């Protein structure tokens, strides 16, 4: 046996012993300041205008695009397992519905309004949130209305986004979540809701700190929302833009946001932490986006990680950073995993 008799005996310092604190799974669970619970999860739903179809999305494992008639039975199964909230993304697939101002976004017969009404009727308790953006519905694929040179026309965009948000709330959405990153849209949405008599019952969840980067690819496949020309770097934040993120958070709070989101999550935990400090009186959420989700799946398929363990680890990180709400494609899994012994 190897001994270290050449080293002098050291007295054991009481303060050096930490392992007494976490040598049992129960003790490890006690180390968490907060535990993951089902009511923290918001599940993204892609709703297409092909009412009776459901289609897998190759770059987004286990996630499908549902026509409104296929959506209800699918969501019903999740509600039985404890699903509390969804966020809707409309995907117009029919020919010729996209135009420069995204008319299809709030078309009364379009996928989002139809889905709000169908979900509201089928699941009175379900909390229905709607992503508010134009990129899924515009012919150019950008998130707002454009000038001829391709840059964002802020005034027209803000008016259009506010109209869309109000129409979602009128149709029965509990919450509107602007993800377009056009300056000033939170104020316009809030004012629109006030004018429509809906502000007191609509939660404005602003994607305040939304960074541009390489993590939205599978979402753009799912939502068919890649910009035709150019990119989103002039409205989504640059990934080094911590100061811009702080300014956007403060701005959106001052414009009337009821809650704020940071997006993506894993690479932006410092921003989640900043947001929970700056916006300590507001619920702060983060979006574990499509690219993050797809990366974990890809790594699990390669045998590099265990999917369930790594998913818990990622989501625990969001909690530690201060998030109270998580938009996650893993929601269906967590609704099951949280009924089982959690990895500790
Ligand atoms: N504005 C649309 C929108 N809303 C949410 C996401 C990304 C979500 C994800 O990747 O899961 C995007 C994509 C984008 O900005 O290009
Ligand atoms: Zn967009
Ligand atoms: Zn969006």
Question: Top keywords for this entry?
Answer:
single chain; alpha/beta; TIM Barrel; 11 helices; 10 strands; binds the ligand NCc1[nH]cc(CCC(=O)O)c1CC(=O)O; binds zinc ion
Identify the strand order in the major beta sheet.
1-4-5-6-7-8-9-10
Radius of gyration: 22 Å
Q: What is the helical fraction, as a range of percent? A: 25-40%
- The third-level CATH topology is TIM Barrel
**Helical segment count:** 11
Which hetero compounds are present in the coordinates? ligand PBG, zinc ion
Structural class: alpha/beta
Report the CATH superfamily: Aldolase class I
- How many angstroms does the end-to-end distance come to? 33 Å
Query: Any idea what the CATH architecture is?
Result: Alpha-Beta Barrel
How is the biggest beta sheet arranged? Answer: 8 strands, parallel, barrel
The strand count comes to 10
Written as H for each helix and E for each strand, in order along the chain, the element string is HEEEHEHEHEHEHHEHEHHEH
Number of domains: 1
The CATH class name reads: Alpha Beta
Strand content: 15-25%
Which regions have little confidence, pLDDT < 50, spanning 5+ residues? none
């Amino acid at each position: 046996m190897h001994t270290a008799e050449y080293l002098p005996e050291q007295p054991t310092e009481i303060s050096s012993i930490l392992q007494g604190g976490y040598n049992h799974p129960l003790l490890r669970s006690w180390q968490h300041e907060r535990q993951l619970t089902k009511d923290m999860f918001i599940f993204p739903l892609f709703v297409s205008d092909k009412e009776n179809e459901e289609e897998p999305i190759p770059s987004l494992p286990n996630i499908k695009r549902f026509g409104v008639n296929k959506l209800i039975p699918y969501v019903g199964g999740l509600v039985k397992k404890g699903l509390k909230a969804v966020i809707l993304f409309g995907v117009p697939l029919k020919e010729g519905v996209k135009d420069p101002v995204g008319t299809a976004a709030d078309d009364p017969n379009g996928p989002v309004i139809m889905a709000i009404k169908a979900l509201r009727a089928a699941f009175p308790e379900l909390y229905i949130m709607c992503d508010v953006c134009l990129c899924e519905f515009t012919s150019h694929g950008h998130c707002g209305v454009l000038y001829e040179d391709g840059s964002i026309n802020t005034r027209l965009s803000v008016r259009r986004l506010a109209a869309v948000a109000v129409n979602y709330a009128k149709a029965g959405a509990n919450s509107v979540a602007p993800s377009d990153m056009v300056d000033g849209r939170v104020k316009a949405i809030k004012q629109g809701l006030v004018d429509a008599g809906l502000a007191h019952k609509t939660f404005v969840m602003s994607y305040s700190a939304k960074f541009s980067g390489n993590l939205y690819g599978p979402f753009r496949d799912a939502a068919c929302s890649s910009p035709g020309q150019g990119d989103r770097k002039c409205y989504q934040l640059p990934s080094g833009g911590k100061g811009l993120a702080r300014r956007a958070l403060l701005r959106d709070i001052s414009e009337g946001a009821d809650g704020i989101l940071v997006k993506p999550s894993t690479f932006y935990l410092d921003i989640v932490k900043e947001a929970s400090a700056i916006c300590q009186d507001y619920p702060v959420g983060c979006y574990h986006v499509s690219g993050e989700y797809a990366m974990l799946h890809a790594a699990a398929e390669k045998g590099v990680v265990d999917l369930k363990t790594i998913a818990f680890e990622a989501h625990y990180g969001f909690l530690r950073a201060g998030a109270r709400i998580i938009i996650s494609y893993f929601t269906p899994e967590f609704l099951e995993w949280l009924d089982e012994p959690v990895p500790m």
